[in-house]
Each structure stands twice: as C-alpha cells, then as structure tokens.
Amino acid sequence: MKKGAVFFDRDDTLVKDTGYMYKIADFQWMDGALVALKQLCDAGIAVFIVTNQGGIGKGLFTRQQMQAFHTHLLKEAKKADITITDIAYCPHHPEAVTAEMAIPCACRKPEPGMLRQLARKWDIDLGQSVMIGDRPSDIEAGKRAGCTALQLTDDTYLPDLVTAAIDIIKKA
Ligand SMILES: [Zn+2]
Question: How does pLDDT run across 43-93, given as a tens digit for each residue?
C-alpha cells in the first residue's frame, strides 16, 4: 500500500535563505527545522525536498555546486539522526541564459512536476501527502499535485505545521 509523505520547500522553509544558496559556508537551518524533521522520522514518515534552483539556469552557480550543498545538507541532517529520502530540483528559469534552460518546464513550482516525479520514483500517494513551504508557489504546487498544502508564515512555527501534517497523513 502506498504511503503519504511530507514534501518541503528548501529555501526559507528548511534552510535560511540569504541570497542564492549554494555555498556550504552559508548553510544554516531555519529555526525548528531539525525538530520538525525529527518528528517525521520518529513517526516513520518519508521526507522529501522540492526546490526551485533557477540560479543554475541563470548561470549563477553550477549543478555540481548545488549537489555539494545538498550533500552537506543531508550530512548535517544525518548528524541529527534524520533521513531525507530524496531531493528534487528545478534548474530552469524564465530568465535563464540559454534557450534550453528558459523553456517553460513542468518542474518549476508552482508546477507540480517535482512532486509527481518523486511520488512515482518512491511509490508515494500524493493524496495522503503534505507540502510545506513559505511561498504561494509552494502551496499551489502542492495543491496541484493533490497534496494538502501548509504555508509557513512569520506567525507559524515549522514543528507545529509538521504536527498538523502528521495528523493529516495518519488520518488519510
Ligand atoms: Zn524546471
């Protein structure tokens, strides 16, 4: 039987966004991120990240730099006994420097392509899943994928949203 999962936006949801984030020296968790991720691991719920990285298309950093940043992120999570199952990224951007990277794609949020791709790969039921992010495009991508979407705002604390997400997934 397929299970639900939680899909997180990366920048300003799990990781502090201080500009284009690809330098390991700039890596910092958001407040509550580790607590929130641990809650999910303890509940046996799979965790994914779906992130727009249009800086690649804009030529501001390379896929290799982003991959190194993600390797670091996963290693920092592991130190806290947290497993993040997979990370999907969209390298495209409407203002990308090459025509190939500027094409309208199915992955750049608010498109739901990254969630669908991960759900296929990992046998996840999107109807039982939750998307959490700080931007309207995260919420729209989650809804279009068939998930419940929860928005992180200045007035909400990530572990509280995750508590709500666990309830939603367990009742589904
Ligand atoms: Zn894309």
Answer: 999 999 999 999 999 999 999 999 999 999 999 999 999 999 999 999 999
Ligand 1 centre distance from Cα of residue 71 (Å): 21
Residue 135: the pLDDT is 98
Instruction: Find the 51 Cα to ligand 1 centroid distance in Å.
Output: 10
DSSP assignment of the chain equals: --B-EEEE-SBTTTB--SSS---GGG--BPTTHHHHHHHHHHTT-EEEEEEE-HHHHTTSS-HHHHHHHHHHHHHHHHHTT----EEEEE---TT-SSHHHHS--SSSTTS-HHHHHHHHHHTB-GGG-EEEESSHHHHHHHHHTT-EEEE--TT--HHHHHHHHHHHHHH-
Q: What is the CATH number of the domain that holds 144?
A: 3.40.50.1000
Nearby residues for ligand 1 (ion, Cβ within 5 Å): 90, 92, 105, 107-108
Calculate how far, in angstroms, residue 114's C-alpha sits from the geometric centre of ligand 1. Answer: 8
Calculate how far, in angstroms, residue 89's C-alpha sits from the geometric centre of ligand 1: 8
In total, how many domains does the chain have?
1
pLDDT tens, position by position, 102-123: 999 999 999 999 999 999 999 9
Q: Which residues form the domain of 34? A: 5-171
Cα(50) to centroid(ligand 1), Å: 11
